[in-house]
Specification:
- The protein has a three-stranded antiparallel sheet, with no helix packed on it. Strands 2-5-4 form a three-stranded antiparallel sheet, with no helix packed on it. It has a two-stranded parallel sheet with strand order 7-8.
- The chain has six helices and ten strands, in the order ββββββααααβαβαββ.
- It has two domains: 3-83, Immunoglobulin-like (Sandwich), CATH 2.60.40; 97-221, C8orf32 fold.
- The protein has helices spanning 97-105, 108-112, 122-132, 139-153, 167-173, 178-191; strands at residues 3-18, 21-25, 35-44, 51-54, 60-66, 70-83, 155-156, 175-176, 197-202, 216-221.
Length: 222
């Protein structure tokens, strides 16, 4: 099975000394039947105590407070991860929306992942979905078509958005980076009552020009 060696450094620099810097980190490897962490080393300036908690979805996060005065803080994350799942190409299924509705109605987690939050962009979103969703399409086919739509109709431009940019703003400028496109696609899928969630991780370098490889990346699991 493929083994990936990841070295991630987050560095903060301040123009004056600061203290009592409270931080939350979400850089712990997710363990399931598709991947396992063989090694994990986390180093933080000042070596503060870290309170680690696991949320409803099984994601671990850490909270720490760097009390001493500092002008620089470095969070160094070293990982060796082995993937266990097969990398089979995407294949369509015969599952339709009626089958999906029945499955979601009996699963609280899937219901939560189908919940729509955005309301101001509904007309624009419906126009996009009218171009994508045709009667009789399988759920898998709609998911794939949504992905192609975002890829073909949005421009990959760094620096014009940030973590506070809304989906409505992304739809207006039709540009952004992976995290923006992931949020747009989440709204598209959830508007069709397809359970989906935001995923953050890595696409390791293969020197093939793939967008986002070798860096922190974002995508959608549906």
């Amino acid at each position: 099975m493929p083994v990936f060696n990841i070295h991630h450094i987050t560095k903060y620099e301040y123009d004056r000394p600061v203290k009592e810097s409270v931080n939350k980190i979400r850089i712990y490897p997710f363990a399931d039947n598709k991947q396992e962490a063989l090694y994990h080393e986390l180093n933080i300036t000042g070596q503060p105590d870290i309170l680690v908690m696991t949320d409803y979805w099984g994601n671990r996060s850490g909270t720490f407070n760097l009390m001493q005065s500092h002008k620089e803080m470095i969070i160094e994350n070293k990982l060796i991860v082995r993937t266990l799942g097969s990398s089979q190409p995407f294949t369509d299924t015969v599952a339709g929306f009626n089958e999906l509705k029945n499955e979601v109605s009996n699963n609280l987690a899937l219901l939560e992942l189908s919940r729509i939050e955005e309301v101001d962009l509904r007309n624009e979103m419906n126009k996009m979905l009218d171009e994508i969703h045709e009667p009789g399409m399988t759920v898998a086919a709609v998911i794939e078509k949504c992905s192609h739509y975002v890829y073909n109709n949005f421009n990959y431009i760094k620096g014009i958005t940030n973590i506070e940019t809304t989906v409505e703003e992304i739809l207006q400028i039709r540009s952004g980076v992976c995290q923006d496109f992931a949020h747009v696609m989440l709204e598209m899928l959830r508007s069709l009552h397809i359970p989906s969630r935001y995923v953050s991780g890595y696409i390791c370098p293969n020197k093939n020009g793939m967008r986002g490889e070798g860096a922190t990346h974002a995508w959608v699991e549906a």
